Amino acid sequence: xxxxxxxxxxxxxxxxxxxxxxxxxxxxxxxxxxxxxxxxxxxxxxxxxxxxxxxxxxxxxxxxxxxxxxxxxxxxxxxxxxxxxxxxxxxxxxxxxxxxxxxxxxxxxxxxxxxxxxxxxxxxxxxxxxxxxxxxxxxxxxxxxxxxxxxxxxxxxxxxx
Length: 161
Description:
76% helix
């Protein structure tokens, strides 16, 4: 585990007393990037009237609950990006590419598998139509913003450490 933490937080470069001192800033940076991407993606989802569907994941129809769930998922994805890919995402072009790739992974996992399965729409699992292509564009934008934010913030934290 120590090696994973060291690998993961290498790009943040915090000089603290241990692995946690390096991991916390990396995860916080990922959360910020995830929330930034989540807000942009959420606006697009709201324009497509998809936020209430996100609320249904927790048994609600509320727009506010949909936003809270969406942003919580965005923060989790940002944090996991930092843990899994943060080591390599320290430069904007690489961060953007990794973020977009990570967005595609979450499009497949979230939009094509988890969401339809959780909502009882099993006939929609891995089905691709207009809505799913729009969702892919949103996930790509989310990933782009996540990766860029991470790449721009993490080196600044490293210099402060």
